[in-house]
User: Fold Acetyl-coenzyme A synthetase from Auraticoccus monumenti.
Amino acid sequence: MSDTEWSNLSTEDRRFPPPPELVAEANVTAETYARAAEDPDAFWAEQARRISWGTEPTESLDWSNPPFAKWFADGTLNAAYNCLDRHVEAGLGDRVAFHFEGEPGDSRALTYAELTREVCRAANALTALGVRAGDRVAIYLPMVPEAVVAMLACARIGAPHVVVFGGFSADALSTRILDCGVEVVITADGGYRRGSASALKPAVDAALEKCPDVRSVLVVQRTGQETAMTEGRDIWWHDALAAESDQHTPEMFPAEHPLYVMYTSGSTGKPKGILHTTGGYLVGTSYTQWATFDLKADRDVFWTAADIGWVTGHSYLVYGPLSNATTSVMYEGTPDTPHQGRWWEIVEKYRVSILYCAPTAIRTFMKWGADIPARHDLSSLRVLGSVGEPINPEAYVWYRENIGGGRTPVVDTWWQTETGMHMITPMPALSVGKPGAAMTPFPGVSIDVVDDEANPVANGHAGLLVITKPWPSMLRTLWGDDQRYVDTYWSRFEGLYFAGDGAKRDADGDIWLLGRVDDVMNVSGHRMSTTEIESSLVSHPKVAEAAVVGATDETTGQAIVAFVILREDAEAGDDIVAELRAHVAKDIGPIARPRSIMVVPELPKTRSGKIMRRLLRDIAENRALGDVTTLTDSSVMDLIKDKLPSAP
Ligand code: WT7
Assistant:
């Protein structure tokens, strides 16, 4: 980017200082940042002491072969021991690790002692199936406690897990199994979704037709539905575990032993298998969960409302919380089953104190209306988190006011599957919150915003987000493809990790994320962020959700095309489009006025909740629709096309 002057810096001047009662007991202070900045290696060595090691590491970072990092390389540890046994040994065996809430309303509390015994049984069962350290195990499960048990059992025996989101197709599963050389799969008969039992096992059977090397399938019984079992290959999980002892001695593995592979939904080409290793990942997730959420593990009830099939589930539902002996909530189903107040009922029931979710969920709740959460006692909440995409200032403020009762700080955490842990975030007991800004690099993390020539941009300017120093929980490579790792992340700029996100620094130097760089539009030579225009639209009282794309335009290079969902109570008169165009022009500037605005009933989203702008661009440019296989619901596109006045 040569011209880094963004014409449309929105002016967001609301500020939210941290509540005094949080400040009084803050986990992170200004001194933490100062110490981390002075000597990041020593800072991370200090954080490594949160973890219990077989052999203590003597060194933090080994960067002798960039970009292939090693952290704490001469240390040994067992990740499952750190998440389980050591808490039981410390007398916390009776503490609840998970309050599981099934979609049909069944619930189950699992203490640290119970979880440890289950994981030991599962580790013994996997060993009995011939799984050895280094072997990859695929996990394809709904959001049930067995998913955590399976992950930790793998970690315990040093077998990297490959969790595949339960909403993915048989095709996606087989691609990942083949790429990773998996021989054992853990799945379930089915799970509950939108009020009914939805089968999972048939997808495994279909996937395995293409995967002759898979020799065993462990099947968790969740729904009890009719399930075909292949003789000699498929075993019921409960039978396998019942046959095993609940005692298991954890082996210590080198810090750089692979912990898991997580595939990122490929926007182009074949999915990338992000490899995370054990020591650095555990230190990073453990410390960030404690710091970012100001965790008080003896009293907080923590709820990461994300699926275990995503990195958010790995880092902040499993490894971070369990390594810190946190009590967490785990919910199986959708937010509107059986009613739109389900999440708030759960917050009330378990007295959830920290809630972590995605802006897309928040905007959905906005659409449903503030009167729904208002019917519940949400006074237990003290910190709210956001992750996955830029949070529009309006959604941030709505979240803070209507869910947090106006008391709670909102932490907007920027990170990626690749980074493993939070990289940019405010701190709830320290930062003066700015709606829409991720704000500050995490202590011990070095971030910059640079122009095309890798020069740091000045305050008030935008550019590309880079990470300038290795961090403990960074990906180590892409599974089986070192070259692609180098090409994707380390080739754009010499010695800098290229994140693929646009960002700007405001007048105070705080960081705002602007979306993927491919979501950046250029309209008549002005750089425009899809996010900023979306935020402007969402700030209009009649708009619930908005997606903006840049469509090719003869005159302006790209033209702004917006898709909006109106609020349920909004009266959509004929002039709504004109009203919204004028609103954006007034809010950001005439250059940001969308060329066209289409009112639609739904937006196409990936299973991780990201708006698929590519498909909207197809519509905006009158093209035949591209690949829709990663959509949550491909009928959404028909719904949108039906509603358009001049649909292609
Ligand atoms: C991409 C990574 C992080 C776990 C879930 C998604 C976007 C993520 C934020 C945020 C703005 C964000 C970025 C990033 N993103 N968090 N707080 N503000 N953008 O993980 O699927 O690996 O996606 O999500 O574009 O690069 P992922």
Remarks:
- The chain is about 30% helix and 20% strand.
